[in-house]
Amino acid sequence: MKESRRSFLKIAGVSALGVTAASNAHAIGEYFIPSEQAIKDQKVSTADRWGMVIDTRKLTHELNEKIAKSCHLNHNVPTLENKNHEIKWIWEEHYEHAFTQQPNEFQAEETAHAPILTLCNHCDNPPCVQACPTKATFQREDGIVLMDFHRCIGCRFCMAACPYGSRSFNFRDPRDAMEDGKPTNPEFPTRTKGVVEKCNFCAERLAVGKDPYCVEASEGALVFGDLSDENSEIRKVLKENYTIRRKASLGTGPSVFYIV
Q1: DSSP state, residue 112
Q2: Most buried one in 1, 20, 24, 256, CB count within 10 A?
Q3: How many helices (H) and strands (E) are present in the chain, helices listed first?
Q4: Cβ contacts of 216 within 8 Å, gap of 6 or more
Q5: Residue 229 and residue 238: Cα distance in Å, rounded?
């Protein structure tokens, strides 16, 4: 019973995603909370701590664009011409900018120009959660760091605390940039002006037993799974490859690993 209750609480935690502003007409409901049938059929992905491995050897500019497009379209992330207003959940970065604590004057040309994918690291010890005065950003039991848009007051303390630049602020209503004002994915909630947003490790897909959009589109370059399960695929990949993490010395405990 204890284990069943624990699993139920993990599943129920997904309901925390149903937190868009009241003016959001795009209901969340069944999309974020698994149906009784889904729970009965065990179509729910659970973990003690979710993590991701990114194999930079397999990445290309074209693949990164495909991955980002899949994520952004399905999460209603608008494309804004003004770079100062840009919203990003997952994006390509230069090696020297992604791994600022590992400079190398004699960096190999291939590595220096490698197309690195960056996103929220869903840290084990997230400074953004500690900095948020309203608990709008919080950490779930399984390690995923989420946003409660109801609570977000737009102070951007979480953005200042995040050492990875993984959060974006909506300086304008993102729905204004959508074609005809309609989201590309009606089942996922749109955001409002004045709130912060970021990658959510596709918690809504884990709730129905599916992989994150980025993993699905990555053609094997991204591996996702339970870091606490020594028999999981992600742990196997970590055992067989040398990996690094972004700014790990800060003590945040990033859950995203890179094979370089």
Answers
A1: H
A2: 256
A3: 10, 10
A4: 70, 210
A5: 12
In the chain the beta strands, taken as DSSP E runs, fall at 50-55, 90-93, 116-119, 137-139, 145-147, 168-169, 196-197, 222-226, 243-244, 256-259
Q: Which of 16, 226, 256, 41 is nearest to 139 (CA)?
A: 16
- From the list 204, 260, 24, 21, the residue with the least C-alpha distance to 213 is 204
Residues 92 and 199 in one domain: yes
Beta-bridged to residue 56, according to DSSP, are none
Domain that holds residue 9: 1-39
Same domain, 125 and 10: no
pLDDT tens digits, one per residue of 25-63: 333 333 344 445 554 555 788 999 999 999 999 999 999
Same domain, 19 and 108: no
Alpha-carbon distance of 57 to 148, in angstroms, equals 35
CB 128 within 8 A of CB 98: no
The count of other CB atoms within 10 Å of the CB of residue 178 is 15
Its pTM stands at 0.82
User: Within 10 A of 28 (CB to CB), how many other CB atoms are there?
Assistant: 18
Higher pLDDT, 77 or 32: 77
Query: Residue range 178-187: average pLDDT?
Result: 85
pLDDT (average), residues 161-183: 91
**Interval 93-104: pLDDT, tens:** 988 889 987 667
Check whether residue 6 and residue 83 sit in a common domain. no
Instruction: Specify the CATH number for the domain of residue 127.
Output: 3.30.70.20
Q: Please, which residues bridge with residue 223 across strands?
A: 53
Residue 113 has what DSSP assignment? T
The dihedral of CA 208, 213, 215, 217: what is its sign? positive
Rounded CA separation 117/88 (Å): 12
